[in-house]
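in:
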């Protein structure tokens, strides 16, 4: 399979690959030395439930290119695998996801990647993923995703929504000292996120000042006056970027000076749905931001931009980390689905781009529970303000909790 690398960029990307590999050399050195040079490489196929060119596909392809460039991955029986990404010709929908899974299975994929969004996650689709009987690496953040999977074939590559809700609640109350907070929700998939936010405030002894829930965003503008009259210190919103721009624009036009936090703030700013004039000071919460100050993030950011000519988002990072973590699991257990599942569940902590991945501590298929709070600047750029691992507050330069003696990578 032809890597996604333009020939004029090969030299630049080769340098990036070397730096990225050296970044985690302490973790990889014992594995790469074990590969017997004389054996022909087999193929480990990653079946992506999406189309080529997405953030998830690009993040996975970058990791695959780098892993293959250093010899692939060697299983315990000595088999050397080169990785290959298999993609769909059309985006699956909630109604066609099961069929898409079957299409990839027919191409003999060993691992599934995706689905990308919570909107595709239903009990039936979760069961279809489990029935595929091979590890599933998904960036979907719905809290109930891994709870429905009693067989532990589904591995979440980003934190669940409750981590982001806890992070923004903690930042607003502990860092900014705010107590009068209203919430707005216009997308049904974030119902759990809002509930977790309300619970986090309640645990701090704070009651929501108001709660506006309008599935689909209908009549949102009619609720603006209600919020203006209330005049809360902060409004936290879950919904579409378009809804956020409408609401924030109306609030600012009415002279409301409070703090506005939006779950998809970075997406809204990058697509300019949220104009620069409104973006300044808006808070966001997610699993990663391109402004992350960690050394691994800076090197990944450079490699990704050189390869694809665009900024990476949280889904790109999650796919990149997942493929590197998969490499460790295959090295330990091979590609038998049951053995690989166990290796992913019980894998040692690894310091990657999002931070420390330590699924053994979680035990439910979560690979990472990293959450960040960031702030948009006057031109839409972001700055990371706070970092969390589950409900533990970390320092901004701290990759994760101290969960074991595994080496932490340093910049090269």
């Amino acid at each position: 399979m032809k890597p996604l690398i333009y020939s004029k960029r090969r030299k630049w990307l080769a340098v990036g690959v070397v730096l990225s590999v050296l970044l985690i050399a302490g973790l990889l050195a014992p594995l790469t030395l074990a590969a017997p040079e004389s054996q022909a490489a087999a193929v480990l196929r990653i079946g992506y439930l999406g189309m080529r060119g997405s953030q998830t596909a690009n993040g996975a392809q970058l990791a695959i290119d780098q892993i293959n460039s250093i010899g692939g991955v060697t299983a315990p029986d000595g088999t050397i695998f080169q990785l290959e990404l298999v993609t769909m010709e059309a985006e699956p929908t909630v109604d066609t996801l099961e069929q898409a899974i079957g299409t990839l299975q027919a191409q003999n994929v060993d691992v599934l990647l995706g689905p990308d969004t919570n909107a595709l996650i239903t009990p039936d689709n979760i069961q279809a993923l489990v029935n595929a009987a091979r590890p599933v690496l998904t960036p979907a953040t719905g809290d109930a995703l891994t709870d429905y999977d009693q067989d532990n074939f589904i591995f979440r590559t980003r934190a669940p929504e409750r981590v982001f809700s806890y992070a923004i609640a903690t930042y607003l109350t502990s860092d900014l000292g705010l107590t009068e907070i209203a919430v707005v929700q216009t997308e049904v998939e974030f119902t759990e996120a809002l509930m977790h936010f309300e619970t986090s405030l309640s645990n701090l002894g704070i009651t929501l000042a108001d709660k506006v829930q309008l599935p689909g965003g209908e009549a949102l503008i009619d609720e603006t006056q209600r919020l203006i009259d209330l005049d809360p210190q902060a409004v936290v919103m879950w919904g579409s970027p378009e809804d956020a721009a409408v609401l924030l624009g109306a609030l600012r036009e009415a002279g409301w000076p409070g703090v506005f936090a939006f779950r998809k703030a970075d997406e809204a700013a990058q697509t300019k749905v949220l104009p620069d004039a409104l973006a300044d000071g808006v808070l966001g919460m997610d699993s990663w931001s391109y402004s992350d100050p960690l050394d691994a993030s800076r090197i990944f950011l450079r490699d990704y931009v050189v390869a694809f000519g665009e900024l990476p988002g949280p889904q790109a990072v999650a796919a990149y980390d997942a493929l590197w973590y998969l490499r460790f699991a295959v090295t330990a257990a091979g590609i038998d689905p049951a053995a690989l599942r166990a290796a992913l569940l019980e894998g040692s902590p690894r310091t990657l781009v999002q931070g420390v991945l330590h699924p053994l501590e979680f035990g439910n298929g979560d690979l990472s529970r990293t959450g960040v709070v960031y702030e948009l600047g006057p031109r839409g750029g972001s700055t990371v303000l706070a970092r969390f691992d589950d409900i533990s507050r970390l320092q901004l330069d701290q990759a994760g909790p101290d969960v074991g003696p595994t080496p932490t990578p340093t910049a090269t």
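note: The chain is about 40% helix and 20% strand.
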